[in-house]
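In this section we walk through a basic example: taking a raw amino acid sequence and producing a predicted 3D structure, encoded as discrete structure tokens. The instruction is simple. Fold the sequence below.
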Amino acid sequence: MAGGSAREWHDAQVAYWAGAGGESWLKGAARTEAVLASLGDRAIAAAKVRPGERIIDIGCGAGPTSLALALSLIHI
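The resulting token sequence is shown next.
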């Protein structure tokens, strides 16, 4: 989509992820998350996150690293 407007790019991405692109990603998500789990665990350990800190998880996939970070800050 060379030369399209920002709205056209946005609309194309919405259509892709709401359709075949999103379905394909979901089919492989569990496998991808399993392969990357040890890296996420190591990153969490290295970050030494403490309550009150803010975290941004860029490219969070299906979110297991974000969830693990959140749960690590909960003191029950």
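Looking at the output, two observations stand out. Helices lie at 6-18, 20-47, 64-72. The chain has one domain: 6-72. In the next section we compare this with other chains.
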